[in-house]
Amino acid sequence: MESAIAEHLKCPRTRHRRVEDDYVPPYPVWSARAPVSVKQVVMGFFGVQSRGSGMQGRACAALMKIARDFALPDGPGHHDLTHYVDAQGFDNMVAIAYWSDSAAYARWCATPAVDAWWRSDERLSEGLGYFREIASPRVEHFETMFNTPDRFEGVGVVMGSVSGELQEHGYWGSMRDRIPLSQTDAMAPSGTRAVIAGMPAPGQRVRIAGHENIAMIRSGQEWTDTTGQERKLYLEDMEPVLREGMDFLRDQGLPIGCYSNRYMRHLDAQGSPLQKSFGLSYWRSLADMERWAESHPTHVAIFGSFMRYVQALNFQLQLRVYHEVSVLKADKQSYEYVNCHAGSGLMNGLAPSSA
């Protein structure tokens, strides 16, 4: 068993873990490991927003254009195609891409074909909305966790290798303990979100500035390999509870510190849904996320349904679950929205109430 914090990221602690050195977790999990040479990653969310079945073909074509551009020089090491319906009833198709080299991302983003398309005035007149949300955490600022060591998702795919079984999990506070920065930093938020260009409304190009230590989580599950009782338990007992919690954060998350939540479904290259989903949310702070996880009825229900699920199966799961959690410095965030409605992403809650 080993620490979630890679050896080269360990430093003398000024803040203590929540568990003692002899703690033994109840079941195994693993983390993705990056080479020492990797200092920073890029997580890019490239979205296409539309409303109504008549616009779906155009939206799909735009998503495919974005995905094709990933094959250009310096493109990402991994990407997913996803879909969700937001609180306002808009379809959002999102290509999520990961780079293990922030300089490569910067070169890709500056590629004329990519940059000119994004900046073109046509993006405001096609009847679609577009967004780019870019998080670029240093390796000290994020953690990953998987319940299997043989198939990673998200940023884990580009990190290259796997840890041994981890010690820091299975207790409240373990998410924080897995982030290397937590050894010396409380990761407390400061500042507020701000509109730095445009106005949150359709027909606008809007840029949003994040603040210090916004927390971002992608937490997912894949039920492709489940059969029989396990599949029934997931689809009929666990998933509806999970969906209720995700909808709560989407619709009522702002008062508890959740700026945006999306409950997303993976798509294949033809746009058909896969048996994989995840929640993607942005929070004012890691502490706000922790409070929801530890005490809010919606997450207590999710956690309870999962524990009933694993106990009924004696911890022998074919369900694959994972998450990645980042705490983002203000200058490692970029949020841009083109012709999107005012409740989109990090714009959520920033527009005047009359808008």
From TrEMBL:
Keywords: Heme, Iron, Lyase, Metal-binding
Database matches in Pfam families: Dehydratase_hem
Required cofactor names: heme b
UniProt keyword 4Fe-4S, yes or no: no
Gene Ontology MF terms: lyase activity; metal ion binding
Entry similarity comment: Belongs to the heme-containing dehydratase family.
Official protein name in the record: Phenylacetaldoxime dehydratase family protein
Taxonomic source organism: Variovorax gossypii
